[in-house]
Amino acid sequence: MKFRPLSGRQRKGQHMSAPAPSTSTTSGTRIVIAGAGPAAQALVSQLDRARFTGSITVLSNRDDTPEALLELAMLPQVSVRFGQPASHIDAANRTVATADGMEFAYDQLVIATGSAPVAAPVKGAAQCLSYSTIDDAARIGEAVSAVARELGRRPLGILVGTGAAAGQAEAVLRARGVRPIRTTARPAAVVPSLSAGAPAASAVIFEDGSSMNGDLVVLAEERVSRDGLAASAGLRTAANGGIVISDDFRTSVPGIWAIGDAAAFDGVRLGLLVAAASAAGACATQLLTAA
Ligand SMILES: Cc1cc2nc3c(=O)[nH]c(=O)nc-3n(C[C@H](O)[C@H](O)[C@H](O)COP(=O)(O)OP(=O)(O)OC[C@H]3O[C@@H](n4cnc5c(N)ncnc54)[C@H](O)[C@@H]3O)c2cc1C
């Protein structure tokens, strides 16, 4: 996935869309999507493919955006609001407010807010490599190759994390010739490197004062569904995180749906791109029926 910085027109608080269509075959149905990741993008594509001509408003909390989303933003029925996190849902009046106080009325709301790290960032995390989205794999691969070139030998990598993301990060490191040493204990801090030309961080320190030293540090921490927005609006959430959905992607509140990593079916978050895409396809069918 390629990312591109926003132009002046696209920056925070502004939106990007082609002119509004003059007619609508779906009686002006307004769909608002909270979140703009792969699940939201797949949903917009599916609705477009099905010739949905109501309006689709996508709220993204990010200022930069994938190329694919920019292309979707050019569709006549689509308006993407960059840098506008959905922050409050009024389910009774069917409106969503953003952090900046903008309000969007909806007929159907889809929550696709994805996942977030379980814990607050380790102190000094900005100094090291982080595997926190699928797109980070390529970035980490390039960064560790540069470290290996600089050192002139196989680097030793301190890998922090448990779960699937850490497993994938380990595979990325090994594929790039790094010897990973994995710790499942959470460090208290990442130690910045003092020597010029070295990677930004090469060691971690634990609460008890012990430390692990290597040539680079990669954080690949566990993630959980980002369901806070839904929970605050009274939607049912699962004990382990995730917006509870039925098999047709309806949440516990009428007119609100959830797809992708934000959703949990039967207590499980699938956490895969293919799952997000198929959820989007099935949800699009339901939305068109509802419209
Ligand atoms: C490190 C890592 C590696 C992975 N590797 C693979 C892999 O190899 N293969 C695979 O199939 N899957 C992989 N996955 C899983 C895959 O990336 C996810 O399943 C997929 O990204 C889910 O898409 P999503 O749109 O539901 O969520 P996300 O990708 O999390 O996107 C949600 C978006 O919503 C935005 N957002 C959040 N809250 C708000 C708000 N309140 N308002 C507006 N916007 C908001 C977020 O900034 C984000 O852009 C990986 C995931 C991670 C974390």
From TrEMBL:
Its cofactor is FAD. It holds the Pfam family Pyr_redox_2. Gene3D superfamilies: FAD/NAD(P)-binding domain (3.50.50.60). GO terms for molecular function: oxidoreductase activity. Residues 17-28 have a biased composition (Low complexity). InterPro entries: FAD-bd_OxRdtase (IPR050260), FAD/NAD-bd_sf (IPR036188), FAD/NAD-binding_dom (IPR023753). Residues 1-28 are annotated as: Disordered. Residues 74-141, 167-277 form the FAD/NAD(P)-binding domain. Keywords: FAD, Flavoprotein. Signal peptide: none annotated. The keyword Cytoplasm does not apply. Residues 1-14 have a biased composition (Basic residues). PANTHER family: NITRITE REDUCTASE [NAD(P)H] (PTHR43429:SF3), PYRIDINE NUCLEOTIDE-DISULFIDE OXIDOREDUCTASE DOMAIN-CONTAINING (PTHR43429). This is NAD(P)H-nitrite reductase. It comes from Pseudarthrobacter phenanthrenivorans (strain DSM 18606 / JCM 16027 / LMG 23796 / Sphe3).
